[in-house]
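Letters spell out the chain; backbone shape is given numerically. Take this protein:
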Amino acid sequence: MESTIKYCTVVFSVKKHLGISINEYMFLDMIYHLSKSKGYCYASKEYLANQLDLTRQAIHKIINRMIELGYLARRPEIELNKFFFVTDKYIDIAYFDS
C-alpha cells in the first residue's frame, strides 16, 4: 500500500533557487518522502496526481521537466524504468543550501 503524505513544508527560498513551480516543488517533496523506505518511489502517476490534485498528464509533464533539470532520475534496472528517485542535486539544494 502506498503511503499518504499529510503535508508539505514549502521553503520559498529553496523553491526559488530550484527554479520550479509550487506543484513541481510539492511533487519532488512527495517523491523524496515516498522514496525513503526503498530508495525509490513506486507510486503510480494516478496516485501522485490524486494526492496533488493534478491530472495524470500534468504529473507526466512534471516528471519529464524534473528529469531535464536533473532533480529526478529513473531506476532503469527496475521493472520497465517506471520508478523514480530524487537526485543528489535536488537534495543538496533543498536540504543543504537553504
Remarks:
- The chain has a mean pLDDT of 88.
- The CA atoms of residues 3 and 85 lie 15 Å apart.
- The radius of gyration is 13 Å.
- The first strand starts at residue 72 and ends at 74.
